[in-house]
Amino acid sequence: MTVTAGTPIELVEGVYASLAARAAAGRERFGRPLTLTEKILLNHLGDPTEPVERGGTYNDFHPDRVAMQDATAQMALLQFMTAGLPTTAVPSTVHCDHLISAKVGAKIDLGVAIDTNKEVYDFLRSVSAKYGIGFWGPGSGIIHQVVLENYAFPGGMMIGTDSHTPNAGGLGMVAIGVGGADAVDVMTGFPFNVRWPKVIGVKLTGSLSGWSSPKDVILEVARVLTVEGGTGAIVEYFGPGADSISATGKATICNMGAEIGATCSVFGYDHNMAMYLKATGREAIADAADKVADDLRPDDGAQYDQLIEIDLDQLKPLINGPHSPDRANRVGAQVGSEARANDWPLDISSALIGSCTNSSYEDITRAASIARQAAAKGLTVKTELLVTPGSEQTRATIERDGLIADLEAIGATVLANACGPCIGQWDRPASANGQANTIVNSFNRNFPKRNDGSANTLSFVTSPDTVVALALAGRLDFDPTVDTITAPDGTEVLLDAPVGEVLPDRGYDPGQNTFTAPPADGSGVVVEVSPTSDRLQLLEPFPAWDGKDYLGLPVLMKAKGKCTTDHISAAGKWLTYRGHLENISGNLFLGAINAYGDQYEAGHGKSVVDGSVDTYPNLAKKYSEAGIRWTAIGDRNYGEGSSREHAAMEPRFRGGVVIFARSFARIHETNLKKQGLVPLTFADPDTYELIGEDDRINVLDLPPKPGTNVQCQIVKPDGSTVDFEAKHTFSDEQVEWFKAGSALNVVRRKVAEGKK
Known about the structure:
This protein is α/β, with parallel strands linked by helices. Helix content is 32%, strand content 18%.
């Protein structure tokens, strides 16, 4: 199927053609009503008769499309190039959004990015042309907003090489963030294999009003479930309150579901989705969805593994942070009290709105309504206010409608249509973050160093309208619902609640056309990667397992506390090397806190060879060059955050073979398996405490056997041993990945054999 700047109605009708029958068969099979999640999954199941069990079975699915952002697309496409196929098997797109740094403003920053990243953009453009992939160039916007505007549709299923792919759940799509190896599977025509998820139901009643917004819904859910509570589950929102929220508001909620570890989040089809589809030129899809609407919503009486109820009438504005997206406080006095208790600066050093999470037309109109009030009273922001439009279409529309001017009137700076500060692409002066400082934003993640690379920056997440109010007040403890701001004339100004417009009255302005469709025949396109490039590097297959147990593994790294993918493989300046495995391995574990003592700086450990202290990437390189295989140890929810598979490829490239943890984040655990590593969780979480700095680890009776714990030993320096068991989640198919050296090696072999 030809890849265009939209989802063909033929694809949608093909999905809907089997929906009713698959749903009916599912009801008969399970003997109960179905959730929306189950209907969509059953409709995309490779074999509709294969056993399924929530939280139990691994199943094969056939997604409708693949989307890749430019940072992760590099490695995904480098892997796809080795598969030996002339084109992708499903519609796929590349979106250039991650490599644009925020420094001055939209025009200059975009120009600098185009010049600086020319080699990478040329590579992605040529690979896309060769293999039939749609290419959204720099300036198009953020992948998730572009997908929502052009490709997402109710009842569909997609995967994307970014953890916030679930944004498309705002249009009723099961959209799952994955690593590049999963994308390669689907692009080569092989199924997407994942454990059948549990389903967490969130029943929404009432309706949002005043200063409360969709952002507050997901901040509340994060408070309830924590960063681990959604692991292994899809979160399904339903109830009258769900139907009262706009499609883009739903997308905000689904987007941040990644911060609770959920496989994805989804809403049922309703009038708000239909209105958004029509407003974005997809009337035919809305009409098709209307015909199967009953099966695009959960059945009455659908059963959930866990049920949460939220009354939107009672929901108050929240602000979550710092350091973790589930650390929730009420806006105003509550967060102020918490700040004073922890010595967090109350003065705000920067305020930021937009990104993929909150950059819709509705979001910007709400923020602009606050700005207009402020300007009328002579108020301007007391700290810098940075605005990131989510897409070229959104940017063009808010510029046409005067909303950019409204925000600029109070001192805002508009950045490029890109991820920017949300992912660490913020060229912030050292004078701003050289000491402890507080920022507020409407993004999704607030891990240490996430936004500007500085551990001194304390990041708080809230709604875009609250961000603007806080920027006007300049203080973290400001409550816009009750507190006033002193105007230049001495009057006290109480801001009215924000007022938004769900959709533009004059329709969307598409702006500049930044999409390039692939040619009908790309066989003549040449993709060149210079052997001397420091940004791109062709891949060599990882070696197959040698059939032996792993004995005497030294502990390269034992992490203390949170160890996210930002800690394992930092973004920021390291995005430069996302297409060069050797160079990006220079950041391996640089953010990890050594559990063996405060005498170590972050990212440092002790060599088992000579006892010297060095950075983890240097130690890993030395071990690899010496042929020393090693293990690393994480704490709870190890690998939380981004889908970046570099956090799995780098340890594998440098000789890591086993990763232990008290628990794993879903995407990262899968990525480790895909690259031939063995992720293991301690059967007794306290085993974590028993492993010393100079100990070695034996991992016995390999390969892992589904349903059976792995037997392991701690070998102490004096030769004594401590036996322990470790759990795993390997399926029979995933064991083959391990034995072959990686999932890609299996795919490559099957393609060569003509099998799928």
